[in-house]
């Protein structure tokens, strides 16, 4: 696996992928490389104008790309349901749960969830549940959830999942990324118990230069903080192309194991994809089951039987 690059992606002809947040950053790079290697890629984007720009950019780089642009707002359960209902009746080979927000001032989604928990976890939980029959219709389907090394900052607080009693932006972010890993653990466990041909796995980009690092400061008008974040990106971060490699590896490489976690090789910060350390608690059945149950109750999305 040493030195794995986008050039090592196996032929994806005949496969269909959904990539959330595909209009920029890691999602854009992921969608472009999947299309470059023959996959039909559905770009799930909240902002359709930005999504159209991304689609046009990919087609400029990959003239024969098979792309579909579809509206998808992970902060709105109605939008998620609409996306799933309008998805074509044929199967789905790959779902990349990539879209995310990071360290924002406290906001709520259309359904009243704290935004980081709502978008990063609950939105993708609901989307996966609604698309699961499509995934199970294809042999060897995969669900890749993009987490973060910063999951170490905290576990979901089951007494305050929406941070209503207290809100700390980085703690809320870490909890949402732990939720991604707990969700992956439980989805993998359920698929294995049912004998389903489905790989649930996760990845993280290390420190990659994307618009997530400056978004919170920009929302609050904190120009100095925004400039410092941008400077850190220029000095220390790897490119979005490099940051997307662990996701692409998890999505396409042979032999990827259920419930695995891949990130950059060097200190989980930068470099080619490699197995990544994760907190032991993100492999614990009890909190994973509790989160699954709470997520079904909050989203009103119940996963069908495998």
TrEMBL record:
What's the domain of life for this entry? Bacteria
- GO MF term set: oxidoreductase activity
Q: Which InterPro entries match?
A: NAD(P)-bd_dom_sf (IPR036291), SDR_fam (IPR002347)
Is Oxidoreductase given among the entry's keywords?
Answer: yes
- One Pfam entry for this protein is adh_short
Q: Which UniProt keywords apply?
A: Oxidoreductase
Which family is this sequence assigned to? Belongs to the short-chain dehydrogenases/reductases (SDR) family.
Q: NCBIfam families under this entry?
A: PRK06197.1
**Protein name (database record):** Short-chain dehydrogenase
